[in-house]
Specification:
The structure is a homodimer of 84-residue chains. The first copy, chain A, has 84 residues and is mainly alpha-helical. Chain A has one domain: Up-down Bundle (Monooxygenase), CATH 1.20.1280.290. The first copy, chain A, is 86% helix and 0% strand. The first copy, chain A, contains 4 helices and no strands. In chain A, helix 1 runs parallel beside helix 4 and helix 3 runs antiparallel to helix 4. Chain A is elongated and about 45 Å long. Chain A starts with a helix and ends with a helix. Chains A and B meet through helix 1, helix 2 and helix 3 of A and helix 1, helix 2 and helix 3 of B.
Chain lengths: 84, 84
């Protein structure tokens, strides 16, 4: 069971931090042309719903992880609008 | 409780299908320059671990959702390598 929880935390950490290098790259290159706006919208909405789900079941890790990723996706959407 | 499960399924569906429009866009434009390779790697690894986690706890929805997304991320990595 401990291994299972460890795998869950590793998975959660990876998917949460994965959008950070994307934000850094888009910030540096000032280019977001190849990133799908529909992907960002669907993914961001999904993150928001996961956070609501975490709130419903009272899971702080789910709330935290998805709120952080949602914030990173919002930054990407803003850059997508700003840089075209 | 029913609302909670519904929110969970909606969230899972959105995050699972979100990479499909990205794959379609990258396929059409033949350009993946703005997509971070580190993001794809971390996210793909995270998806794989989520699938393993789903296998550990015996959850078919978690296995299915994350395997589908992992496959889409693999396609994106292949296009990233192919199209530069």
């Amino acid at each position: 069971m401990e291994t299972t929880i460890l795998i869950g935390y590793m998975a959660g950490t990876l998917t949460t931090i994965s959008f950070l290098p994307q934000v850094i790259r888009s910030w540096r290159t000032r280019s977001t042309h190849d990133i799908s706006f529909i992907m960002l919208t669907l993914f961001g909405l999904g993150m928001l719903l996961w956070a609501v789900y975490g709130f419903h079941i009272g899971s702080l890790p789910i709330i935290l992880a998805n709120t952080i990723t949602f914030a990173l996706v919002v930054v990407l959407v803003a850059m997508k609008v700003r840089y075209k």
